[in-house]
Amino acid sequence: MVDAVERLNVLLTQEDVSYRTLDYLGRLRHLANEELASAGEPMDSDASSPPSPKKRKGADGEYTEVNAQGERCRGPPTSVINKHWREKICEWAYQVVDHFQLQREVVSIAMNHLDRYLADYPFTVDKNKFQLLAMTCLYLSIKLNVYKHLLIPGSKSTMDSILQLSRGFFTLTEMEEMENDILQRLQWHVHPPSPQAFVKHFLYLIGIEDTELLDVSQFMVELSIMDYYFVDYKSSEVAIASIMNALQRRSPNDKDKAPIHDEYYPNLMGPVPRSLFDYDTSKVRECRDRLHLIFMQANGHVPAAAEEGDRTPRKAESDAIRTTSPVSVMTPMS
User: Fold this and answer.
1) What is the mean pLDDT of residues 9-36?
2) What CATH class does 82-185 carry?
């Protein structure tokens, strides 16, 4: 028990010091509006229309469209990223790992890389860069956590396989450069404690051995990974919320109700310090409310809160609408 507590304390410290994710879409929208203003174009409150690419003459005498950072553009101007793009790319990543029969935790780690990179990136990000970034983050997560090469017909390496999923839109050099940029920007902190890892540690510490409870908790975690709402929450908070909601679902009378936030399991912790598993904080409560909503929607049910006075905020309800999974990473995003 002592060793398990020490390991959990290490994970919690890593989470606070090196692996926190923060909201970045608001800042990116602000940057996009600044670029619009400097270009003399109308500002968009949703930043859905960034500055048009400009043409730059290359060494070969040809003119190529470039964005504000001087990066080559492909195709027509595209909007800056939004939460729906992130959800689609995350769902695509789950499809990739399922196809290769990998642990789905790989996607959680990849999205942590992506979110921390974008939180630190000082420029606007268009669809092209976002998709290259997402593909490279997934590749990096696979390389660091899966001990085998992922090969598809015609590919020579895992990176080559991931590139082929872009239908030739990106080159090997571009992906290698992006990988190096990710590692430098993240300062080589590429082993985040995932919500899945916290779920396993918490369940072990509180002495619950229940495969169904673990599966439901992990499913809720996977839903949270797709939802930008949780970017500003710690992995440990999401894990605790997932476990508490899964525990509530064991009760036939309460499983479809909105989360019960009182001392629902007063004897839950036993000898484990409350500081390691505090399930009654405001952050955990918010996570539980959101997880309940998207869990019910994912299973095709109307949340019980809607029938009991709408205890769940309407903003959370409107933001949690699911989107269709893309077939390819290059599927148009609107």
Assistant:
1) 89
2) mainly alpha
